[in-house]
Structure formats: C-alpha cells, structure tokens
Design brief:
With 293 residues, the protein is α/β, with parallel strands linked by helices. The chain has 8 helices and 13 strands.
Length: 293
C-alpha cells in the first residue's frame, strides 16, 4: 500500500485526488487498491478538516515535514505555486516521489533548483497542468507532428484569473502554457505579450512560425488551432477527465519509477510564463533560454 500525503487542502484537486484514491468517487472507473491518501497539511485549518472528514483521511499535520515517516509519496496541491517548492523540498530530500500540481512553481529559478534536487536524488516527479494529458491536446500534438509539411501559425485560448490571492497570473495560466508547448514544442525562441484589461495576448516565436496565446478572463473554455498551407486543424479541448489522467500518471510513476514528462518539461513552462509576465509588464519582447536539468 502506498500511503499518500496531500499538501495544500484548499484546492479542489486535493478533494478530487483523495476521493479517487480512497474509492469515494463513483464516476472513476479505475480503482487503485494499492493507493490511499492518509493525511493532509494546508494553510487553511477548516479545509484540512473538511478533507479529513469527507475523504476518509487519518490525520492532519501542523507542518509538511511532519508527514515524513508516515507517507510513501506526496501530492502538492496548494493553489499558490509559490509554496510548491517549499512544501515538496523536504520529501524530495528524503527520496520520496511527488506530484506537484500546476503551476510547478511561480518562479523559474525555484523550479530549476527543485528539479535539479530531484534529479540529483534520483526522485521521480510528475505534475504541472493536467491539460497536457487530455485526448484533444494529444491529438493536436500528433497532428502538428504528422499532418503538416510545415506549420504556418498556431493559436491557443484558455482561461486566466488575474485578480486572486493565489499568485495572480500564475494561478491559472499554466494550463494554456502547457497546452501550447505540448502542441507546438517546448522550444519557443522569444515571446511578446500585451495586456488589455484582465486579458493577456502573447505571441511565441518559433524558428519558422508564431503561436498566439489568448489568456481570457471569465471564459472557461479551451481551444487550439494549427494552420498550415491548405490545411487547418482546430479543436475545442475537453478537460473533463483531467483528474483521472493525473492520477494515472502518478500511479504509474509510483509503481514503475518512470516519469511521464522530463524534469525539463516540468520546469520550462514556468520559465515561459515568467517571460510572458515580464513581456506584458515591461512592453518588451523577451528572449527565452531553457536550461537543461
């Protein structure tokens, strides 16, 4: 039995994962008898208690590190990505595998440090945005690789929340960033971005095409399009199965030690988002450099 600890109980993701692993989600067809969420920590005591009571957990801790010795894996689900490296670090240092929710971190430097620590310890990680795992995104990525002689342009639209206590722009923006990078590649060369009210438009420049990213306040739909000579592939993106996909890759990592994505592909979207924020705040095009981990 893998004992799982939740770090950040205020997120709906924490409840969703706990119900799936503890057999309390009637809509989840996949069962995991060797997985159980046993405890939680979070900054919101009332949310900790709700998770304990509603999801059949065993304990609440006062600090993340109080779970050491009581869990075999952790899921870092705090809404504010600023806390993700802080919460995950003691477990990675102890050799405990982790799921780190979106955003992997708010700061690129912190994301790099955490991933380098995990790699140095041989600790596998999964996480980031669930949107990169859903069928429509994978189909678009396949189409981009196989259905076009050359891509002329691309476009991705997804929700954003600019005014919130969970990191502002970073709270929701990783969904779009990871969709875009999954479809079009993790290697944009630069990005320009513009803010109009609470909406952000970014233009990612690749070697031979540009991709527009439309971060739209209050519109909770996802879509993407690929444009080429004589051909367009466009899809609305259904994210309704995202929690199940996240649980599946987490379980596979725990059972096999294999990561679904590289350390770089967990970290680089954070660097991309940092560049977008700098671009719209300073009105400059920002060159992108993605370090190897």
């Amino acid at each position: 039995m893998y004992r799982i600890g939740i770090l950040g109980s205020e997120n709906s993701h924490a409840t969703a994962f706990s119900k799936i692993f503890n057999g309390l989600d009637p809509k989840c067809e996949t069962k995991y008898p060797d997985m159980r969420v046993v405890g939680c920590f979070g900054h919101y005591p009332e949310e900790n208690q709700k998770l304990l009571d509603n999801c059949s957990l065993d304990f609440i801790t006062d600090k993340p590190e109080d779970m050491l010795g009581k869990v075999d894996a952790v899921m870092v689900t705090a809404r504010n990505g600023r806390f993700h490296p802080e919460f995950a670090r003691p477990f990675i240092e102890a050799g405990i595998p982790a799921f780190i929710d979106k955003p992997f971190a708010n700061c690129g430097d912190e994301a790099v440090k955490l991933a380098k620590l995990a790699k140095s310890k041989g600790v596998p990680l999964v996480g980031g945005s669930s949107t990169k795992l859903v069928y429509d995104v994978l189909q678009l990525a396949y189409a981009r690789r196989n259905a076009f002689d050359a891509v002329g342009a691309g476009s991705v639209a997804a929700p954003v929340s600019m005014d919130n206590p969970y990191g502002g722009f970073y709270f929701y923006s990783s969904h779009l960033a990871e969709i875009s990078m999954t479809i079009f590649g993790y290697n944009p060369k630069s990005v320009a971005a513009y803010r109009a009210g609470d909406n952000i438009t970014a233009i990612a420049r690749y070697d031979s095409f540009d991709v527009t990213n439309h971060f739209v306040e209050g519109n909770y739909t996802y879509s993407a399009a690929i444009y080429g000579k004589g051909k367009t592939v466009a899809r609305d993106i259904d994210i309704s199965m995202c929690y199940q996909h996240e649980c599946a890759i987490f379980v596979d990592m725990l059972r096999t030690g294999r990561m679904s994505h590289s350390y770089e592909h967990l970290v680089w979207p954070v660097i991309y988002l940092n560049a977008i924020k700098k671009a719209y705040e300073e009105g400059v095009e920002v060159a992108l450099e993605f370090p190897e981990i």
